[in-house]
Amino acid sequence: EAQVTQNPRYLITVTGKKLTVTCSQNMNHEYMSWYRQDPGLGLRQIYYSMNVEVTDKGDVPEGYKVSRKEKRNFPLILESPSPNQTSLYFCASSLRGAPETQYFGPGTRLLVL
Amino acid sequence: QKEVEQNSGPLSVPEGAIASLNCTYSDRGSQSFFWYRQYSGKSPELIMSIYSNGDKEDGRFTAQLNKASQYVSLLIRDSQPSDSATYLCAVRPPGGGNKLTFGTGTQLKVEL
Prior knowledge:
The structure holds two protein chains of two kinds.
Chain A: E1 4-7, E2 10-13, E3 19-25, E4 31-38, E5 42-51, E6 54-57, E7 65-66, E8 76-78, E9 87-95, E10 98-104, E11 108-112
Parallel strand pairs in A: 2-11
Antiparallel strand pairs in A: 1-3, 3-8, 4-5, 4-9, 5-6, 7-8, 9-10, 9-11
Chain B: E1 4-5, E2 11-14, E3 19-25, E4 32-38, E5 45-50, E6 54-58, E7 61-66, E8 71-76, E9 85-92, E10 101-102, E11 106-111
Parallel strand pairs in B: 2-11
Antiparallel strand pairs in B: 1-3, 3-8, 4-5, 4-9, 6-7, 7-8, 9-10, 9-11
């Protein structure tokens, strides 16, 4: 079954405590990205990756890091989380040049106290 | 001006009616347009894509694109309670690639 998985699905943490949200896809997609979704602001892209070892900033990259060491995995790292990073996060993957093939993961709901 | 604009709703329609969802975009060079459906607490899923002016039909869904007016819409015929969700409009900016810019979504409620 084609899927994008994210872990954890729910996370409550405190300001400044480093955390990583994992993302993995089994469709051999080249393109992967992270979004955050906030009420009234919609889905906004944080970072994206065109392929292994190729990453770039999206629209709201501040406070986040990513890496792409393997094609299937694209972890999102919050080195020092702050309350304004409380949000619903989605990982997505697609074939390069074909955004219509985009699959979203189930989402990770993060609360930073 | 937002790059992709949608009325947040909620849009309420009775069961069996036609629901009309609208989206405008600011970049005239945009080439590809997508409609996603997102149930509460779930991830978005693609339901329609449209690339050229006119209508594209898929079952009860029709996407309409008017590039001159920078307007894309989604019609849902014979609306069902299961269609109650938030509908996200997404636009692929000029230059290709995989980036999509999303609107904030319109909440649709289909009432019995």
